[in-house]
Design goal:
The complex is a heterodimer of chains A (about 250) and B (about 525).
Chain A lengths: L3 E8 L2 E10 L4 E9 L8 E7 L6 H7 L3 H7 L2 E5 L38 H16 L2 E10 L2 H12 L7 E2 L14 E6 L3 H4 L5 H11 L3 E6 L6 H19 L2
Parallel strand pairs in A: 4-5, 4-6, 6-7, 7-8, 8-9
Antiparallel strand pairs in A: 1-2, 2-3, 3-5
Chain B lengths: L2 H21 L6 H11 L9 E3 L4 E3 L9 E3 L2 H96 L24 H9 L10 E2 L16 E2 L24 E2 L5 E2 L3 E7 L8 E8 L8 E6 L3 E5 L5 E10 L2 E2 L6 E4 L7 E2 L7 E3 L5 E4 L21 E4 L7 E8 L5 E7 L14 E8 L4 E7 L2 E7 L5 E7 L4 E6 L4 E7 L6 E7 L3 E6 L6 H4 L2
Antiparallel strand pairs in B: 1-2, 1-3, 4-5, 6-8, 7-8, 8-11, 9-10, 9-12, 12-13, 12-14, 15-18, 16-17, 17-28, 18-27, 19-24, 19-28, 20-21, 20-27, 21-22, 22-23, 24-25, 25-26
Helix pairs in contact in B: 1-3, 2-3, 3-4
Classes of the chains: A alpha/beta (about 250), B alpha+beta (about 525).
Keywords (chain B): Coiled coil
Pfam families (chain B): fn3 (PF00041), SPRY (PF00622)
Protein name (chain B): Fibronectin type III and SPRY domain containing 2
Chain lengths: ~250, ~525
């Protein structure tokens, strides 16, 4: 479980780093971005896991979302993993943008040839937190998960399948059934999202399911915004603050 | 004061003068010149030994040869000049004393005569009233007589006719007697002038003392039931007793009454309001502030408060006991009954005078009801301060630009608006529909609960899956934010960002009949203050 530092840049008083390691779950080399706030130099900090969307790598979020400012302010470590195993030489993994490489969907595959490598759910909920907690000044009791697009869905799945594991959740899409400790889910959705208008996203289903199950969700339909990282950039502060409320409680 | 009384001091003055005059420079009175010269020259020829009656001056023998000159012994000269001076001094002192006494006498006499005149005038008016009464009675009697006279005339006429008839038959004379039955004399009631006489006589008895001089009231010289009155008098007046009239003196005021339900507070300050409770004039009020838990005496006083309210700065997270005293020239009143204020949260009631006529506010000022039966428009009383369209009411938030938190309890059927508005927000407009109000609105549709966060008629599009029944409202002037929370879930619902240039007041409205309860004085939860 040796970590190799790929890059390190000072940012907002802390450091934005990228590490590479050999994943036991995914059986390949994996990269993740990690932002260490100034507070991490003197003590343990809660960790905020960010799950990116389709086609993304660990780079998209750390270069485009501008999350470091709020993370620095609230003293939160942000971990942004890659979205799928890479270089596994599985037939057809690079054929489609929404399946295979860059499209792990944060689930554990159950069929060959995928089930050996495509274990993103186990990776983000088990292996990666273990790795982070043992190598960085992270508070293992305080973690939360969030994401965009496919990552948002992933975050919801992680949260709903692991009652009590994550302190706060939010996502941009999808439905759930849940029983466990009270959640507090914040969802922002761009009103001009091309996937919303093409009915690939079904927020009403999620809202009615959550209403029925009394899962607290605040769903904000943001006028004029689309699916891009400009949208993520615009609301990331609200989300980090939302998480900070629980992580720093 | 008599002249004999003056003798002793005058002699003393004269002796003193006689000595001091010797040292004085050459004077204008020749008599003094002589006195002065006597000890200077021992030559008897040089001293004045003669008196020139033509010139009226002492002189030396051999001078004034053509005048009538008489010898003048030294002792006489000395006596004359001393006496002259003594008389001069004596006369001037007497004149002063007399002038003063005359003035006082004159004043007394004037007073006395005006009293006498007043008494006389009173008697006169009494007499004239009784005479008027007599006159009236007599006139009435005369009127009666007149009527009787009329009937007598008729009788007389008949008698005459009878007489004429008789005359034709016999030559008999008959007499008819008419008599006025009212005495033409007035009885003058005896006028009792003994009092007036006494008053006239008393003028020449002991002179009335001069009016004492009232000293102005001294600060802090009174209590609620007593006063210290001081006056001065002339020492030579004989006084038996004083009569006291004191319209210009004041007892200390009664303690004010704190209006408990209208006192506001927050972390940093309290607004205390009270009623004067006095008919006596109150010049100002004093607020006394002490920390409740330290059992110390007064830690702070605010003095010279001109009105019946005071905004007082507090330290957060403490309990204070506050008393008010009313102050006038007599001193400070007793302390009012105390009020205990905790600087742990923002406390305020609803402002009943702003409530829409259809809205009733509970006596404690924290619950509002919109009853099902609608009042007819004709029975609604509107003023400038109450809402006329939106069934709304404002809260009386303390004017402090800090952080404030309050909660609103609603039931799941309530359709409401809660938020803040500027004090002068349009009373004809709906909350959230204008630029002067910000609010969260709940609407029930057949399929779902709809929430709006309204300002200037525009709302963000927000879906909320769990209906908030206890809404936390957080206002932070410094950061310019107004946030709404589901207080049960600690769930953030929405935040308005706006620089509130003026003070805002909490606002509450019911769009459908129902009830809404306000909870204030709460400590802002940590999840809001330390996100």
């Amino acid at each position: 479980m040796a970590l190799t530092q790929v890059s390190s840049n000072k940012c907002c008083g802390g450091y934005q780093k990228v590490f590479e390691h050999d994943s036991s779950e995914l059986k390949c080399k994996m990269k993740f971005g990690i932002y260490l706030p100034p507070k991490a130099e003197s003590g343990k900090c809660p960790v905020f896991y960010w799950l990116s969307g389709l086609t993304c790598t660990e780079q998209n979020f750390i270069t485009k979302a501008g999350s470091q400012q709020a993370a620095s302010e609230h003293g939160i470590i942000i971990v942004a993993p890659d979205t799928s195993p890479r270089g596994c030489n599985i037939e057809g993994e690079d054929e489609s943008w929404d399946f295979g490489t860059g499209a792990g969907f944060y689930v554990d595959a159950t069929q060959d040839p995928w089930k050996t490598n495509y274990r993103m759910y186990s990776y983000v909920t088990e292996e990666l937190p273990r790795l982070i907690n043992s190598n960085f000044p992270a508070d293992p009791e305080k973690m939360s998960v969030s994401g965009h697009s496919m990552g948002g869905h992933g975050a919801l799945i992680c949260a709903l399948k692991n009652p009590g594991k994550y302190k706060a959740y939010d996502a941009t899409v999808l439905a759930a059934s849940y029983s466990g400790p009270e959640l507090d889910i914040l969802i922002d959705q761009g009103r001009d999202d091309q996937f919303l208008s093409s009915s690939q996203l079904l927020p009403d289903n999620l809202i009615s399911a959550c209403s029925e199950k009394k899962i607290p969700v605040v769903f904000r339909l943001q006028q004029g915004y689309d699916h891009s990282y400009y949208f993520v950039f615009s609301f990331i502060n609200d989300h980090i603050k939302h998480h900070a409320k629980y992580l720093n409680a | 004061m008599d002249v004999y009384g003056l003798r002793g001091p005058l002699q003393a003055i004269a002796e003193e003068m006689a000595v001091s005059e010797e040292e004085e420079a050459e004077g204008d009175e020749e008599a003094f010149v002589v006195v002065r010269k006597r000890p200077v020259t021992s030559d008897p020829a040089a001293s004045s030994d003669m008196y020139c009656s033509d010139c009226g001056t002492p002189t030396h023998s051999g001078q004034h040869t053509h005048h009538r000159v008489v010898p003048l012994p030294d002792a006489v000269i000395l006596n004359i000049c001393v006496c002259m001076y003594v008389l001069y001094v004596c006369a001037s002192v007497c004149v002063c004393v007399l002038q003063e006494n005359f003035g006082r006498q004159e004043q007394n006499l004037e007073q006395h005569y005006s009293d006498v005149l007043q008494t006389l005038a009173q008697r006169n008016s009494e007499n004239s009233t009784s005479l008027q009464d007599q006159k009236k009675q007599k006139l009435e009697a005369l009127y009666g007589q007149l009527l009787a006279c009329g009937s007598l005339l008729d009788t007389g006429k008949e008698l005459i006719e009878n007489a004429q008839e008789l005359h034709r038959c016999t030559n008999r004379n008959e007499e008819v007697e008419l008599k006025v039955g009212v005495s033409m004399e007035f009885t003058t009631p005896p006028v009792d002038l003994t009092v007036v006489k006494q008053m006239m006589e008393s003028i020449n008895v002991v002179p009335a003392p001069s009016a004492p001089v009232m000293n102005p009231q001294v600060v802090n010289s009174a209590t609620t039931s007593s006063l210290r009155v001081c006056w001065s008098l002339f020492s030579d007046d004989t006084v038996d007793f004083y009569q006291l009239y004191c319209p210009v003196y004041m007892t200390v005021p009664s303690p004010p009454i704190i209006r408990l339900q209208e006192c506001l507070s927050c972390l940093e300050a309290a607004l205390v309001r009270w009623d004067s409770g006095n008919t006596n004039p109150v010049e100002s009020y004093t607020l006394e502030l002490s920390e409740a838990d330290t059992h110390s005496s007064v830690t702070e006083s605010i003095v010279a408060i001109p009105t019946c309210e005071c905004l007082v700065q507090l330290q957060p997270w403490k309990r204070y006991v506050i008393h008010i005293r009313a102050v006038n020239i007599g001193g400070a009143s007793e302390r009012s009954p105390p009020i205990t204020i905790s600087s742990t949260g923002t406390f305020f009631p609803l402002l009943k005078e702003t409530a829409h006529p259809s809205l009733s506010v509970s006596p404690d000022g924290f619950t509002m009801f919109y009853l099902d039966e609608d009042l007819p428009i004709s029975e609604m009383v509107f003023s400038d301060s109450n809402f006329s369209s939106c069934v709304a009411v404002l809260g009386d938030l303390i004017p402090i630009r800090g952080q404030h938190y309050w909660e609103v309890e609603v039931d799941e059927w309530a359709e409401y608006r809660v938020g803040v508005a500027y004090e002068d927000t349009q009373r004809t407009s709906y909350l959230g529909a204008n630029a002067t109000s910000w609010c969260m609105r709940h609407i029930r549709t057949p399929s779902r609960h709809k929430y709006e966060f309204l300002h200037n008629g525009w709302s963000a599009d927000v879906r909320i899956t769990v209906q908030p029944l206890q809404i936390g409202v957080f206002l932070d002037y410094e950061r310019g934010i107004l946030s709404f929370y589901n207080a049960h879930l600690h769930q953030h619902l929405h935040t308005f960002t706006c620089c509130f240039h003026h003070y805002v007041l909490p606002c509450f409205a019911l769009d459908k009949p129902g009830a809404l309860t306000l909870q204030t004085g709460l400590t802002t939860p940590k999840y809001i203050t330390h996100p």
